[in-house]
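Lecture notes, part 5. Sequence design as translation. It can be helpful to think of inverse folding as translation between two languages: the language of shapes and the language of residues. The source text, in structure tokens, appears below.
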């Protein structure tokens, strides 16, 4: 789904008569709030959707498949998303 399609769908679902610019500002604000909350507190729970959280990945060694050379991957923080049970069940039902 492209961004314009998302904005139109959000506008239609909300049943509001707003411009796509206004809907875009709302979607961007939502994304910023989720990002800020996750980065500041390490976790952001959106009811009906799921939980965004920060996890620490340890440093590790890997091997370059082409050359066989060992490489070190540094430790880093990654964002993880865990869908709410009802959302995950909807996805499972749609798949099968």
């Amino acid at each position: 789904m492209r961004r314009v399609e998302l904005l139109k769908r959000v506008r239609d679902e909300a049943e509001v008569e707003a411009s796509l610019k206004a809907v875009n500002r709302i979607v961007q604000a939502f994304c910023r709030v989720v990002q800020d909350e996750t980065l500041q507190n390490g976790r952001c729970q959106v009811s009906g959707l799921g939980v965004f959280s920060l996890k620490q990945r340890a440093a590790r060694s890997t091997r370059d498949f082409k050359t066989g050379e060992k490489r070190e991957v540094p430790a880093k923080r990654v964002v993880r998303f865990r869908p709410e049970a009802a959302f995950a069940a909807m996805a499972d039902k749609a798949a099968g």
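The translated text above is only one of many valid answers, since several sequences can fold into similar shapes. The mean pLDDT is 94.
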